[in-house]
Amino acid sequence: MRKPEPVRTRDQKKRPGTSSPSSSSRRARNTTTATGRSLITLLMLAWIATWIVGIWLERLPPGLLAAAVAINLATYFVYASDKRAAEKGTWRVSERALHLLSLACGWPAAWFAQQTLRHKSSKHEFRVTYWATVIANTALLAVYVWMPEWGMR
């Protein structure tokens, strides 16, 4: 018996290619995605819990939570604006600005924008810096709430 010929397809940039990856590589990629989603979900839950505890213990002012929500909304809209600019070939938002928004408590919206808009989700250098901002923001918030003697009081 002859092996079936691979189905020829075109990728998003209209380059000829072969059929989709093997099922084993697809499974491995899906496992990584599921692991990444589990990690980000766990981080977001811990981040939200830390905000709640910080406000309840009066270590964080409630107005600061409102500011974090506003920063998250702004972060999503900046990512959407940058995505539109990338598609149109017009002026772009700098990666530095996107990272500063993530560092300033906007990382949950940045992750959501990366996933829903498929923007800045595959550029390795950007992702490494993004995860550094997530870790830095979460660690600083945790230290401030859980170890107030180390905080900036």
TrEMBL record:
Pfam families: DUF1294 (PF06961). Residues 1-10 have a biased composition (Basic and acidic residues). It comes from the Bacteria. InterPro entries: DUF1294. Residues 1-32 are annotated as: Disordered. The keyword Transmembrane applies. The chain crosses the membrane at residues 39-57, 63-80, 128-147. Keywords: Membrane, Transmembrane, Transmembrane helix. Residues 17-32 have a biased composition (Low complexity). This is DUF1294 domain-containing protein. It comes from Diaphorobacter aerolatus.
